[in-house]
Amino acid sequence: MGHGKETPRQKMIGMMYLVLTAMLALNVSKDILNGFVLVNNGLVETTHNFVAKNLSSYEIFDAAYAKTPEKVQKFRDNAYEVKKQTDQLAFEIQELKVEMLKFVDGEKSDALIPDGYSFGGHTTYEIDGTLIGAKDNYDKPSQMMILEGKGGVLKKKIEEYKEFLVTLTENEGVKKGILDALDTEDEKNREGVTETWEELKFSHMPLVAALTMLSKVQGDVRNAEADIITDMLSQIGATDTKVNKMEAIVQSLKPSYVLVGGEYQARILLAAYDSLQKPEIYLGQYQRNAVGELFIPDGGTLLQYDDKGRAIFKVTGTSVGDFKKFGLLQMATADGIKPYPFTIEYTVGQSSTVISPTKMNVLYIGVDNPISVSMSGVPMERIKVSMTNGSINKVGNEWIASPTSPGVAKITASAEVEGKTQTGSFDFRVKTVPNPVPKVGGKNTGKIDKATLAAQVAVVAEMENFDFDLKFAVTEFSVSAVVKGFAQNKPTKGARFTDDQKALINSLTKGSKVYIEDIKAMGPDKKVRDLGVIAFTID
Predict the structure, then answer these.
(1) Residue 129 near residue 36 (C-beta atoms within 8 A)
(2) What percentage of the chain's residues is helix, strand, coil (to nearest 5)?
(3) Which of 125, 274, 285, 464 pairs with 515 at a CA distance of 20 to 30 A?
(4) pTM of the prediction?
(5) How far apart are CA 149 and CA 152, in angstroms?
């Protein structure tokens, strides 16, 4: 929502969306998806505020037309064509959101709420993000928007809409603002591969984030409507105002915490204002009186201005959770005091440490166990990691844990954050590596053809259903069988069959039992394992 004159609430919502997207890319807990619900609610409410503001602008056109129709008619007609096309596009985006929710969450999703309105004879709906059951579904939103082409259709409609808007103004700044707000250009990723607008917005995006993105597009459309309507009002002199001060403002377009390979962006703009007139800004839950006027019953809390003429909202996070602050900005105009409602939404989170095994929830003795460690807001090079019942060392971007004995190992991460030590730990079970399974010709029991058995080169030891790629070497075994009533046993060192062992196998008749026993193997820990017996029946 970073276009035109943004309110502090719009800036906060835009920043929250970008932060949540970055955190999602870090594969943090699914609880972060609930943050997208908060952002989406803020975007929807901001869009509703834009709708109300734009309706007031159309009323100004009507009032101006009543006074000087010959001067205003052309601009008024253009304004209502803007309204018509904006309402249609906003409705189609809302319908797309509803279609996506039904496609992913089911036709009877609890999150689908009729809002009591209609557009073109169609009932319209709102979406309650808290009731979405499949918030984290990554596949279906991408399928719908990319594979099925719905994103491409939306892109074309946005492009047609913005091309229409820029024909209505000669102001290059307004044109650029609209083009930037409704940017649908393809971009190259870090690998130099060009990605389409719909891929950038919806590829591998969970449902709740995809819906939030569509809400953002709706807000951008309403913002562009406000920009062009304000510009047309200025052309008929309806927005004349006095300013006596200007100030350079830096506005972040991306989070100030940047990942390696990412980029930081900020917009520097010139803000003009009247320092002699400071609107009064009150915090408090506002209501409407009998005639529809906004007011705060108990008067609210008046925000103070700093020495630069800025009203500052400050709050200290004392507990974890989502919070809202409501208020009214009261501006003195030629028509009297006009109240403008606002909502400040923010989240207080607990700093977190994530320690997770790369392959499984168990550490094995004698094996390099890769461990992933991250701490929110802390660069990897500042994190210190220690371990009980073993040692842990950093290799590249991960840590390798080497436990020493069965039981439990605790891995602890710590870092200095704003002068305080932040720590987190995780307990892992420690086990010895299970024995491999001895096999000959891919088998370790049952019937086998004599010629097939005699043709085998060696006995092998295979790890079955084990996530690590471990190799065990057979160090010795023996072949035994009963031939003409006499038991014979042929031992050997190593894994390969000897000539004596193959001769014994070739002397057997159909139905004879042959045993490959006393099998021993050595693994990465250099310990010799007894692997038991392979029993075959000659077929």
Answers:
(1) yes
(2) 35, 35, 30
(3) 464
(4) 0.44
(5) 5
